[in-house]
Design goal:
The longest helix has 29 residues. The protein contains 3 helices and 9 strands; from the N terminus they run αββαβββββββα. Helix 1 packs antiparallel against helix 3. It is of the alpha+beta class. It is globular, with a radius of gyration of 24 Å. Strands 1, 2, 3, 4, 5, 6, 7, 8 and 9 form a 9-stranded antiparallel β-sheet that branches.
Length: 225
């Protein structure tokens, strides 16, 4: 019976060892607020900021390590077609939905097209657990740049939230719009979700432990009889 106990413990350990990584680079799942509009929804939609369409170096959500990815100096296409362009509005808010609550450690943004001069010149990053931002945390205020199409890491204060707001204040003089190529976050799951194989292993471990308990009770009853 001792061997069964060891087996059950090993199965639990293996299940946890194969859990889905809890931290990695992630794209938001949706743009839920955009007060700056879209220059042409058909060609330059807000979804271009979160769909990885213009990334020349792809990543896997929740699997690729954020820091390792930054070190590759990942590039974004310089064409407008892979960017979001605002509708002749140069200041406003973008709110991204991460899909669930995360501990958000860091932020990365790629410039959009239109000759770089449409890149955000100044912006603030705020996180919140709720869409109304009634309890919000300002995690950083930054000056943008015009250094081409390599992803830029902006060091923010770690916080917990589901929604991330960019408050943009102007561009670098482009009369058309503000342009962003892509955004991504270094995000950590607060409650890791095990892989299906891990769930199976854990279930086998529970079954083994249950069988051991039943067998022990039967032995005790025989002794008492």
């Amino acid at each position: 019976m001792k061997n069964y106990a060891i087996l059950a413990v090993l199965m639990f350990a293996t299940a946890f060892a194969h859990a889905v990584p809890t931290r990695g680079i992630r794209s938001p799942v949706d743009v839920v607020v955009n007060t700056m509009g879209e220059y042409e929804e058909r060609w330059y939609p807000e979804e271009n900021m979160i769909n990885k369409s213009g990334l020349l170096t792809p990543f896997i959500d929740g699997v690729t390590d954020f820091t390792d990815y930054v070190y590759t100096a990942p590039l974004h296409e310089g064409w407008d077609d892979y960017s979001w362009l605002s509708a002749y509005i140069y200041s406003g808010e973008l709110i991204f939905d991460m899909g669930r609550e995360y501990r958000i450690w860091n932020f990365m943004m790629w410039n959009g097209g239109t000759g770089i001069s449409a890149s955000p010149a100044a912006f603030t990053v705020t996180t919140s657990r709720t869409l109304d931002f009634s309890e919000a945390t300002v995690v950083g205020t930054f000056t943008g740049h015009q250094r081409g199409y390599v992803g830029t890491e902006y060091w923010i204060t770690p916080s917990v939230g589901r929604y991330v707001k960019l408050t943009i204040d102007g561009n670098f003089g482009n009369p058309c719009c503000v342009a962003i190529g892509e955004v991504a976050f270094d995000a950590e799951l607060l409650h890791p979700i095990p892989e299906p194989s891990s769930v199976t292993l854990a279930g086998i471990g529970l079954t083994a432990l249950g069988a051991m308990a039943v067998a022990r009770r039967l032995r005790e009853r025989r002794r008492d009889a």
